[in-house]
Amino acid sequence: MTRATLLATLLCIGCGSPTPRFAHVRRTEDPVVLERWTMGTRLRIVAFAREEVVAAALDEAGRLDALLSTFRLSSALSALNAAAGRRVAVPPELAQYLRSAVALAERTGGAFDPTVGPLVAASRSRDPGAIAAARALVGFRNVVFHGISEIELRLPGMAIDPGGIGKGWAVDAMVSRLRAAGVSAAFIDFGESSFYGMGAPPGRSGWAVRLRDAHGEPTGPDLILRDRSLSTSMSLALAEEPDRPSRPHIIDPRDGQLVMTPRIAAVVCPSGAEADALSTALVVLGQEGLAVLDRFPAASAWIHEEGRPPTARGELPLAPRPR
Predict the structure, then answer these.
(1) Do 16 and 110 have their domain in common?
(2) What distance in Å separates the CA atoms of residue 288 and residue 316, rounded to the nearest whole number?
(3) How far, in Å, are 33, 123, 260, 283 from residue 247 at the CA level?
């Protein structure tokens, strides 16, 4: 998910700190609230924990950004992309990340594909020739693993794009760090598209999030996250400024074309990385692709696309309706 802003309205029940305009907060007791700019977006953690523990979780996301960023020439992922066509040694953690990404690509039938990097670059030009050339370089089966930490991108010019599960991977790492420190209640909001609710605020059953519809309006259902991740992806980016039109930003890696139908997909499951991959895949596949969840029994999903009623699959953690 490269640009999925304002896709969910965080109710963040139980937090008492000042919040941006997309959040609505009811105070119970004061948690620690810390924010940083990481992976090109805003990362925010609300936690009933010591400040240094929350800061350490933010540091973990920053460390992974340094590993996975394609905007830093010094990152391990940038080095791997530059070596496409050759077998190279990479840090074990990067190899683990890529094994997970390739496995998710396989399980989604290629609707999510971490090798979409050339298409992401070519789509900016909208040149059909450049897009066709880039499409020939996309294919997760061309990522070859040699032993524990040697990887070969078979085709020169191939490139891994971390946008699909990078934030979700970092969310999982932050959750592990918080749990190891004994934190029992926290909420992670990464770029307003990747979320995790750990435990529950005092006096509440979990962390409430309201989904937005295919046009960015807060008309979707309210979900209660408790020890679950939520990822939202949208096929049309919302305008960054009022006078700038929205533009497509999600690419179907199977044919190289932008997904033009206004569509939002939200996925809830225990893993942030899986939720990210599935929400991206479902924006590509549409409502007809919900059967992909059969391969992810712990996941549930909600999709809304223009001109069709919303559709859900699995047991969504819906908030109780007021009587």
Answers:
(1) no
(2) 18
(3) 33, 11, 9, 15
